[in-house]
Design a protein that fits this description.
about 775 residues; 19 helices; 5-stranded antiparallel β-sheet; disordered C terminus; 6-stranded antiparallel β-sheet; alpha+beta; about 65% helix
């Protein structure tokens, strides 16, 4: 069959049909590769989401170990919002991993084993976390769990020893408590051996005295005390002495293994997808090249019958085959060739639209319109589907970025306020101003004020304005607000955060260089510590506070409330210490005055003796004068006696209230009053002979150091610790004053002290020193 028998129309139809089949084939292959790429990207996105949830779970684990281990409510109820959120995340992760494991791609890439290991690591990590929470609750806090039972056993032993009134046993018990507290503070297992060494020695001593009352009972209590201490150490070992031991170590290892497995799967999928995309692009280019060559050959074969017009089409199609998009063909006729030229122009428009769409997508403009083959067919539909999925992936990543930025913003803010709250050397007003100034700037608010509750005894509680920043109130002309007065008083009474977006025009106004205007949003947050309201922070802004900003503000203000409470307590303690110092100085001044009065009394007695001798020498012939002098002397003696009685009364009161002693250079007691003997005599009523006797075992060296400073001429004022006549550990507010002679040599040391309480009475809060 000769080719000349076919018309141009039939030839072009045959050629168009051939090209259409090839283009359809290209579209089908392109669609297949695009769908495969999207499927791979979906799996990668799912793995990234699982990794994010895994990081959130590890964050919840850390928050639980930091916050819930000191939360009394958790130990009472066993409920924790961190555990609930962890379980929810763990369930979501497990569900997502199961869904991924069912995909054919995982098996084709030989990732099934790695994925199964990752699932097992996650399940083991979740199980270890639940075990850790159970161990933490079993360990307890204060009056709960093993800690509560351990504290009760300590109190039982101490009460028995207090009834025995034995100094040796009390000292040994203090040593046990010290080893126990050293372990709890330092988590050093060497203190366990020291503890049991002292405990064994104490039990052996009690066993040798079984005939004494209550020895058997005390031994049983001591054994129970030691067993509970060992149990506490064992449960600490299970939890983990450090982050690399026990359950904490397993949690770290499990979490790291889980993250490593996810990273391995993600990297392999990512590399596979990248290689597949490169292969697909290369294959498509190769196919386009092959199809272009075939089209050229076909057109060359038909060109002999189409003359000049067909040659022009040949050049045009050759340029299309080489990847160019030339200008549209100028149609000059209405024959079959013209129809073909129109079809080629339509193809060119669609290829240009495809190119424009690819450029827009490459530039990140996923909202660009697609008009390829009327958005129909395999290629047009595939491009539409590709745009939808790219938009979905972009939106998800944008949302993740926003959440990450908000979390980083909150963490940076908490760090800034933690640094501010460590400024303990500032006054309450300066600290409060620094807090609200930073809070206003960080949250981009406009102004704020902090009100503190003033609860004077016998008076109605009120809120005083402590500090402001860019503050101008028009509703209140005073800086003192009663409870239930206005929004601030209502917030303090209800103890709940209050947010207003509809603010009265006359409530508050913000002043700037452009004038005054009413803010858009107002938030009032109570300063609460353990349910007690300390005050209220009020903030105003032109912007509406977002939920994450409100949560951040509440967290910051919770820390601020704790710090302000601590500053208030420290200030009160400082005032008490200053008052105690003032009283000690007043007592010292009274002692000096009494000494001067006694010297005056001694001079008066000497003068009376001298006067009596003169009277004897002049007695002869001066009876009347002697009688007058005697009468006068009697009156002076009576006055002196009354003065002596008053001084003696002060001296008796002073001796009954204070411990007084005179000490040698070596600390030996050569003169002391009865109260000194009564408080500091030994258990067997043997009088103390040296000021260093009955010292605590570990304080000897410190006592000697301070004594050397006293001997060198320095006056010591502070607290000394001794074991009194009842075997109790007491603290004595003391004054050691060196007395020197005219040559500057030390003659003696005058000691004046006052017993201020037992150690269990927290005397450290009353004292201004320590010896």
């Amino acid at each position: 069959m000769r080719i000349t028998r076919f018309s141009i129309r039939k030839l072009l139809l045959s050629t168009a049909l051939f090209l259409a089949i090839l283009l359809l084939f290209i579209g089908t292959i392109t669609n297949y590769f695009l769908r495969q790429s999207f499927s791979q990207f979906e799996i990668i996105s799912e793995i990234e989401r699982i990794n994010t949830m895994g990081l959130q779970a590890r964050s919840l684990e850390k928050d639980f170990m930091i916050k819930e281990t000191v939360n009394n409510i958790f130990f009472q109820t066993g409920k924790s919002r961190y555990i609930e959120r962890f379980d929810s995340l763990s369930h979501q992760i497990d569900k997502s991993l199961k869904r991924i494991s069912s995909l054919d791609m995982i098996a084709s890439l030989e990732l099934t084993e790695v994925l199964e290991s990752t699932i097992q690591w996650h399940r083991q990590y979740s199980t270890d976390f639940r075990t850790t929470t159970q161990l933490v609750r079993a360990r307890g806090l204060k009056d709960h769990g093993l800690i509560g039972e351990f504290r009760r056993s300590i109190h039982n032993v101490e009460s028995q020893f207090n009834e025995m009134e034995n100094y040796y046993y009390s000292t040994q018990m203090l040593t046990l408590r010290r080893h126990e507290k050293d372990y709890l503070l330092r988590k050093d297992l060497s203190y366990q051996e020291k503890f049991h060494s002292v405990l064994k020695k104490l039990i052996l001593d009690l066993e040798g005295k079984r005939n004494q009352k209550k020895s058997t009972e005390i031994i049983a209590l001591l054994n129970n005390y030691g067993d509970l201490f060992d149990k506490l150490i064992e449960i600490d070992k299970k939890i983990g002495i450090s982050d690399n031991d026990g359950m904490l170590g397993k949690l770290n290892a499990g979490g790291n293994s889980f993250e490593s497995g996810l990273t391995q799967i993600h990297d392999k999928l990512y590399n596979y997808s990248r290689n597949e995309i490169k292969s697909s692009v290369g294959m498509l280019f190769a196919m386009v090249g092959v199809i272009s060559i075939a089209a050229v050959l076909l057109l060359l074969f038909v060109a002999r019958h189409i003359v000049t017009a067909i040659k022009r089409l040949q050049r045009y199609i050759s340029r299309l085959g080489s990847g160019e998009l030339p200008d549209l063909i100028e149609v000059q006729s209405n024959d079959e060739i013209a129809q073909m030229e129109k079809s080629i122009n339509t193809l060119t428009d669609n290829l240009r639209n495809t190119r424009s769409f690819a450029i827009e997508v490459g530039n990140g403009n996923l909202d660009s319109e697609v008009n390829v083959f009327g958005n129909k067919g395999d290629l047009g539909g595939a491009l539409i589907e590709m745009r939808k999925k790219l938009l979905q992936v972009s939106n998800e990543r944008e949302q993740q970025t926003i959440e990450t930025e908000r979390r980083m913003w909150a963490n940076e803010g908490m760090a800034i306020f933690a640094e501010i709250l460590r400024m303990r050397d500032k006054t309450m007003e300066d600290l409060a101003f620094e807090i609200i100034k930073t809070l206003v700037k960080y949250t981009k608010s406009n102004q704020a004020g902090i009100f503190l509750m003033n609860r004077e005894e016998g008076e109605k509680p009120v809120l005083n304005l402590l500090a402001t920043y860019a503050w101008e109130r028009k509703k209140y002309s005073k800086m003192q607000i009663e409870l239930n007065e206005g929004l601030v008083g209502t917030c303090a009474l209800e103890a709940e955060t209050t947010l207003f977006t509809d603010i009265p025009k006359d409530y508050i106004r913000i002043t700037s260089g452009l004038g005054e205007t009413t803010p858009t949003c107002l938030i009032l947050v109570p300063l609460k510590v353990e349910g007690e309201v300390l005050g209220v922070i009020e903030m105003a802004s032109f912007n509406i506070y977002q939920p994450y900003e409100i949560e951040f503000i509440e967290k910051v203000i919770a820390n601020v409330a704790s710090t302000l409470q601590m500053v208030r307590i420290n200030t009160h303690t400082k005032q008490l210490l200053e008052r105690t110092q003032q009283q000690a100085e007043e007592l010292q001044a009274q002692e000096e005055e009494m000494r001067q009065n006694m010297e005056e009394m001694q001079s008066t007695q000497e003068w009376m003796s001298q006067r009596e001798e003169e009277l004897k020498n002049e007695i002869a012939g001066k009876d009347e004068k002697i009688n007058r002098i005697i009468e006068k002397s009697k009156k002076e003696i009576a006055q002196t006696h009354e003065k002596y009685i008053a001084i003696e009364t002060v001296h008796v009161v002073f001796n009954s209230y204070f411990l007084i002693a005179e000490l040698t250079k070596k600390g030996d007691v050569f003169n002391c009053n009865l109260r000194f003997k009564k408080v500091l005599s030994s258990v067997d009523d043997i009088e103390i002979s040296n000021i260093f006797e009955n010292s605590l075992p570990n304080d000897q060296e410190a006592n000697r150091t301070e004594w050397q400073r006293i001997v060198n001429g320095e006056t010591y004022r502070g607290v000394i610790h001794r074991i009194d006549s009842q075997g109790n550990h007491v603290a004595i507010q003391s004054v050691f004053s060196p007395v020197v002679n005219a040559k500057g040599d030390l003659e003696k040391v005058l000691f004046v002290g006052q017993k201020i309480g037992l150690v269990d009475e927290k005397i450290s809060e009353k004292a201004n020193g320590n010896w």
